Amino acid sequence: MNKVLLVTGGSRGIGAATALMAAQQGWAVAVNYASRSDAAEHVVQEIAGQGGQAIAVQADIANEAEVLSMFEQVHARLGPLCGLVNNAGVVDLPARVDEMSLARWRRMIDINIIGSFLCAREAVRRMSTRHGGQGGVIVNLSSVAAVLGAPGQYVDYAATKGAIDTFTVGLAREVASEGIRVNGVRPGLIDTEIHASGGQPERAWQLAGSIPMKRPGNAQEIASAIVWLLSEQASYTTGSLLDVTGGR
Question: N or C end of the chain, less CB within 10 A?
């Protein structure tokens, strides 16, 4: 039987690196994307080229109907779900709180918080022994911004990641006796495309001096932590938040 993993936001950055690394560890991977079908298909082809199994599946994770359809497609095409990486998320242009719009906050909350809740809910419904499942594992992507607050730039983003931290701990305790482990990874400054989406493509390197290790991390370094948490090597780890920050 396949070990089936769904990675949201899997077409680029940390999500793509996680999909590739998990496939190398024997997972059959569903690569979720919102709009970049070409990027998702590239990840799928790269996995296939390495002898792995993967599919691309479209869904806006803030849209409940699309999330439900995505989980149904994953089951139909790959088999019963064993793992979920809640990676999809967004930032926005740097701003102070008193400069931010309600529309910005709603988008941030809908994708970063509600999307993760929706995906976790559907994963639990399929994996929990309470619902007849065989157990599984969930890894939520948080951020060190949840601790640092991101003043003057992304306080709203940081707040959504603080919510993910609380969600991770609470859900882990809720389903620990049902065969599901839930953990979070808090990346620091990572050199990925997400900074460009916030209008600062060079942000990770511009702030390198503030990192004790004096460099940003890369997507593979975060993926390594995620894939370890997915593995049986982390079989007694649940409710944990793993900082991968270069010392920040």
Answer: N
- 217 forms bridges with which residues in the sheet? 190
Listing DSSP states for 116-182 in one string gives HHHHHHHHHHHH-GGGT---EEEEEE--THHHH--TTT-HHHHHHHHHHHHHHHHHHHHHGGGTEEE
Is the pTM higher than 0.90? The answer reads yes
Q: What is the pLDDT of residues 181-212, one digit of tens each?
A: 999 999 999 887 654 555 566 767 777 778 88
Catalytic annotation present for 157 = yes
In order of their start, the domains of the chain are: 3-244 (3.40.50.720)
CA distances from 145 to 90, 210, 247 (A): 13, 14, 13
Distance (Å, whole) CA 61 – CA 87: 10
Determine how many CB atoms are found less than 10 A away from the CB of residue 209: 8
